[in-house]
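Schema walk-through. Below, the input block comes first and the output block second. Nothing else is stored per chain. Lengths vary across the set, and this one has 512 residues.
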Amino acid sequence: MPEPSSSGQRHKYSPCDWHRSKSGGALAVNLLLPLQPASAHGREKWPGKQRSATTFPTASIFRHRYIKPMKSCLLTASSTLLVCASAAAQTDISSQLLTLSGPVQDGGVYDLAAQTWSQGLSSAAGASDVLYNNTCAAFGFLSLDSGEVVIDSGRLPSTTSPTNTFSQPGSADQYDLGLIELAYCTSEPSLDIRLNLFECYAPCSDASALVPDYSFDIQGAPGSLSGTPEAFSIRVDLGNLGSLPNILADSDGVYDGNTALDQFGWSFEITSTLSGGPSGPLVAGDPFGLLGGGGGMGCGWGAGTGIGTDDVLEIDTAGAMLGCNFFGGYFSGGEYASLYLKLAGADTAPPSTGTKFCFGNGLSTACPCGNNNDSSQAAGASGCANGSFHGGAELDVSGSASLVSDDATLNAAGLVPGQPGLFFQGNNAVNAGTGNSFGDGLRCAGGSVVRLGVRVANPAGEASTMGISLGATGQASAGDTRRYQLWYRDPNGSPCGNLFNLTNGLEVVWQP
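--- output ---
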């Protein structure tokens, strides 16, 4: 799998930003700590009008990583439309919906890594569980003009997703994607197709302003040899990639109960030249069995109609949004405005960003005055007991260790409320990682110390480095191992009378 790309088109604003800030504001408090200072450093058909394709990076697959400080999907007036919502803001494009004239044929399997076609799946893709299924009642296809991109939405449920008519809980909070199944109809002898995935996308929220999280180029998809439109379903096998694409459930791993915050988006674009005959993706979904004169399959959400998919489709061209569209309204007798897509994969646990070390639980270096923590905080994986918390203060990290993503955040808990502390970085793990006595705690990180920033603990005794770029401030490079710790004041009830203490240590190996 090619390395994640950061050289493609930059997003104009982040599609889904979030944070859970645990700290109060940053204050310029002089702790008088003897550390070394940091080094300086209405959509209409436009007959005959030529349109250029939307510009996206051209790698077969890439992962664009972005900072997620505050969760907020892009919203527009139409971004929360459901199947029962008003169609006032939508354009009826029923004239572009063409009926299938024959069965949907098996177009085979495309190995994305090898860029070859076959009938067999790799073991990684073949063993995948279905994550999203919108393949029910495919009666027609959306005919696209050259350069047009159509964008649909859906939802991958997290473990916090509710159980009701429209939803069900997921088995994990993020998934490795091993297989993509899509379908189309074309009069061309073959097609090149680009499929983009957006981890967070609100329906009709202008995907032209976003950079996709993953982009897949499918070359030489089968077509019609007679020039008469024929329909195909194809499977894109991701199992032979060096690592599988990873998607957060409900956009950020947590169900919010808001259509605009929980959905993912995907786009379908034909990148090969079209000769003028109709080509485009199959339309699918029939949650209440209203299609085919009431004789539709009635595939409920999660059983053939994709969870979270809405009765709207966005169409873009030339890097701009043309409009929000439907087929006259599902409850008014129109086709459901959603596209054929199946995603399969496997549950994944979040990758570890850092490793905690140097604990004040008495199992290695004892705390200075016998103030070992009582294991009530992080099961003892924390610092020495302080005047407010017998469990000591814990330091952990959220986000990733990627310097490109730049989203790693140090989080501390069990601090003395209202008191300042200094987050700092060191090159070394002191005393082989067990620490030395220092104040009321253990000094765990040392060597070429860099001050990262002062934070004041909130009333719950929490603080974080939110807003500080750890990699840039600490001048880290890919492959560097850095150790982190928080040094904080404890003026009231200091167990050893030294009036300050420290968290456990944390080690991070920085990645590109």
